[in-house]
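Next up, a chain.

===
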Amino acid sequence: MTAQGTALRFGYGTNGLADLRLDDALALLADLGYDGVGLTLDHMHLDPLAPDLAARTRRVGRRLAALGLDVTVETGARYVLDPRRKHGPSLLDPDPEARARRVDLLLRAVRVAADLGAHAVHCFSGTVPPSSGAAAGGAATGGAPASGALTSGAPTGDAPASDVATGDAVTGDVATSDAPVGDPATSDAATGDAATAWQRLAASLTPVLEAADTAGIPLAIEPEPGHLLATLADFHHLRRLLGDPPALGLTLDLGHCQCLEPLPPADCVRAAAPWLRHVQIEDMRRGVHDHLPFGEGEMDFPPVLAALAATGYQGLTVVELPRHSHAGPHYAEASLPFLHRAAAAAAATVPLTAVSGAAPGAASDAAAPAAAAPATDTPAATAPATPTPVPEGSTP
């Protein structure tokens, strides 16, 4: 514990090292000095559907221990369940059997996390099915198509452009009351009833939360641009809908705060502090959901890291650059020194100069927009009174 709060511990996501064998990726991160890893369960990294998962997990656990790496289990693999649909099926799928496949993946992730001694299991809501009138980021009533939509930026370098999702932006209002959790299987998502999507999400997560509670592993859901649960306000809607279960926590992607939250990222951290179980970090620009290497976006990192340290957060802060696996070792090597400099600048309250071109670099229950949001951390980003609309399916 420093004078400013807890010393931050940094990790790197294996979804940004997809071209490396898992053992090689872990060895690289340990050699570079990372404290841990965000382990995305995928076909090339501890495949959650392949045989002998328990035995393979034990081997990975021994390797993590030997390397001195902590771990958080992430579940954002693009095609691990469906080779044709990115992140499909989701917890919102109209087909109960399809939803059950996603629930099964999360249950497997909880077991893996328990065996590895992980800090948390990460998950997300998924996008609302295209035929539904429920809006991304709308907590109960849905929303109308909006203009001035947030875009999903194209990846840089050699990353495949096909990873970038596009779509029409929609937005919605945070509900003023919570709908009861009913039987989602009896409702039709095509009716346009946004409450049905939230009911499906709550019902799908219930058995996972029970398993997480039994295992003593937090389930940390991530507000994701373009998804049903897109903002901190949406997280609180789900939390209340579920009755505030102790196993439910929050994955806070700091770049997403820069991208679309009405509060500046540092204020988002302070507002989210009681529920923080996992943190992801990268650079990003206002209004563009594109995970960027440090120094290529608009984030002012020292105030954000100072706020995070002041919360007492003890988990990993994991670099998430899933569109940069083509140069993953380079970005892993460059990112950690940047974060160390930013953390030192935060402790000294001295501004940090961003890396140059080629080198990549307890709060109240109220994350809803304030009447007048404070100024953002960067001059280029002006905080709106409501969340910036986002395209469906813009998850990296």
User: Anything to note?
Assistant: The longest strand covers residues 248-253. The CA atoms of residues 77 and 376 lie 32 Å apart.
